[in-house]
Amino acid sequence: DTAVSQTPKYLVTQMGNDKSIKCEQNLGHDTMYWYKQDSKKFLKIMFSYNNKELIINETVPNRFSPKSPDKAHLNLHINSLELGDSAVYFCASRDEWETQYFGPGTRLLVL
Amino acid sequence: DQQVKQNSPSLSVQEGRISILNCDYTNSMFDYFLWYKKYPAEGPTFLISISSIKDKNEDGRFTVFLNKSAKHLSLHIVPSQPGDSAVYFCAASAYSGAGSYQLTFGKGTKLSVIP
User: In this predicted model, what pLDDT tens digit does every residue of B48-97 receive, in sequence order?
Assistant: First the structure.
């Protein structure tokens, strides 16, 4: 049973396209996150959703929009993709004791 | 400015010996610390954590030590096994308001356990 799952695992697309990454967790957690791991390997938070409400938006370009249809899902939609968006994107959910559990990652390559 | 630092990008240890991974932080608001293990092409996997009110937490072969005055934590793995070879991320948690907590990660240390 996968606790936090993401689709797709790999995404190759052209500059200027719009794409979405889906995330689902079956842990019953109220808070979910999106992280970006850049070429320098830093994991940086992008968004946090607590019970479908946006809590954090860490100066991410507004081309990135998180959407949460329910508390088990947090999808990431990216408009007008740019070369610099190439990275690995991780979804996570948090338990009541501050521990976060991560999905397997989505490797995005913008050509 | 990096609030969580792992100054050793890599570490090699002989199988059966102790692995010690270090992490330093600067933000006094961090109240919970975690270690994650990451294999290539996979997401970070939670390993062990420690609250700021403790100085030690042990789980099997893994022990995390916290020195609040020095703003330093370390992960000890003993005995080290080849399967422990991975990248280890140190993370620190702080309350960011409205019921949400934010993790700040270090850059990771790649551990290689040599058989």
Answer: 999 999 999 999 999 999 999 999 999 999 999 999 999 999 999 998 87
B19-54 tens-digit pLDDT:
999 999 999 999 999 999 999 989 999 999 999 999
Q: How many CB atoms lie within 10 A of CB B38?
A: 22
Q: How far apart are CA A89 and CA B97, in angstroms?
A: 24
Strands (E), chain B: 4-5, 10-14, 19-25, 32-38, 45-51, 56-59, 62-67, 72-77, 86-97, 100-105, 109-114
* Cα–Cα distance measured from residue B99 to residue B10, given in angstroms and rounded to the nearest whole number: 36
CB contact under 8 A, A48 and B102: yes
Name the DSSP letter for residue A39. Answer: T
Nearest to B49 among A4, A99, A105 (CB): A99
Contact A102 B98 (CB under 8 A): no
Per-residue pLDDT tens digits for A26-85: 999 999 999 999 877 789 999 898 876 887 777 889 899 999 988 899 999 999 999 999
